[in-house]
Amino acid sequence: MARSKSLAVAVAALSALLPGLTPAAHAQIRNPGTFMYTIMGDVDSLDPHWQYDGISHEMIFQLYETLIFYKGSSITEFEPMIATIVPSTSNGLISADKRTYSFPLRKGVKFHDGSPLTPADVKYSVMRFLLSDRAGGPSVLLLEPILGIATTRDKDGKPVPGLFEQADKAVRIEGGSLVLELKQPFAPLLSILAAFCPIVSKPWTIANGGWDGSAASWAQFNNPSKEAPFLYDHVNGTGPFMLERWDKKQKQIILKRFEDYWRGPAKLERIVYKTLDEFSTRRLMLAAGDADASLLEREFLPQIASLAGIKVEDDLPFLEVHNAFIFNFKVNATGSPYVGSGKLDGDGIPSDFFSDIEVRRGFANAFDYDAYIRDGYRGKGSRARGPIPVGVFGYNERQSITPFDPKASEEHFRKAHKGQVWEKGFRVAVAYMQGRADRQLACEILKKGVESINPKFKVDIRAIQWSTYLSAWQAGKLPLVNARWALDFPDPHNAVFPFLHSQGHYAKVAGYSNPRADRVISEAVAEAEPDKRKALYAELQRIAYEDVPQIFTLDTKYVKVYQSWVKGGYYNPIMPYGYFYPVMKGATP
Length: 589
Hints:
18 helices; 589 residues; Dipeptide-binding Protein, domain 3; 3-stranded antiparallel beta sheet
């Protein structure tokens, strides 16, 4: 960065002493070529086929490229990227039975190391995405349509023989085009490909210890640990920005412009992502002009209203299952500091504590939903009616919702675990991502509600660093979490599958399985007739209401906060943190 650390500290100190200061700095753009973005949460991985969280995915959008991409702010229109044409039935690149997709591949594209992109790189990338299939990762997004499966492993966790051969047949290069052959029609396929399965360099990945692309070795690279792949913290993509440095200690990632980018260099020279969990620090940097944009929770908006030169865009569409509580039906208690004694003795919980629906219903009735919308979102929200957010196809506005009802909560708790919950009490930890005040508030409201039912009930709130949180959740050690699900693509399948399908991101780790839900999800994604499809998603919302595998709190809107000198960008709800290729810092009109 051009600004020295000592000067930045001095500015922050001055702002702290003079909170009403209107910085004259806003008359002049700070560091015109560098975009400073203060965020919440740290990056989990930079491997584009491993990462599956919002912050990491934000980096991938800047560093790598997919076959096609979302066109501007649209979630239904696409533009070619590594492919030269967006396939459709009208141009003949999607077959009449909608099972074969052809993507003519672009020539003249370079990776960051200067090597040319080839069709072999594209096929290798799709195969690696499918077959690496880390637990809880994104591979299921393409495994389902291409191979008709949700996982590459059997019930014992071992790679299934013969999958390489199936994938090799379904993913092929023909005359300079990538051809994908699906098991059955899959309506959201283009949406998935617009955001997932970026292209990596096959020779570079192999040279750095990655999978060699053969049938003989794929199983060795299946379900890798986070830091095992070289791509965890090294990047060689084709995107408009390159990785300059990932400073894990300082929680900062710096990207620099790729000068040989095939569409021409980006306008910004650098992007700096700085993780700052404290709102007060983010506010000071905005006020001083040291941050060009910041992620902020809605409850803090009044505290930035007086800042000079700050723009706020509100009421933006938000394709997200927002801040839901997820129950773990089978907690991995081994080495877990979140289950207390591990017994139902008033000082802990057993591993199967939340497998009892009466416990889940007790928690659901103890949460004050209206207070959360009022205090956390200033009334900018509505009660969630299941895993499908408002505004997404299939949302059923008539679906019943669980009320805040302490009396009903007591009745459920008295029945739970044959009366032992009420008699002995419990102590349970509820976790959320450190730095998220909105999730902290949700946990505080739940704690207050549950503990008011019986003095023997204790809820401990745990704020956990994002990467640690993800690892603990994937290991099954967290009994109850407050988390979100940003839709990977704008289709109800991606809202219900993670929560309700036995192989979904949350359901699988939490041990939730309902064969009826699995069956309906499979039927709904393959159904072409809109009314029939809508009815199937209404049924899935009923299942979520009846089973209570999660507590869905609210649907809300997105808000962006940035300096008025930021120009050229656009908002797309699939990538709410932003896509920076067209962004620049220009004079305020």
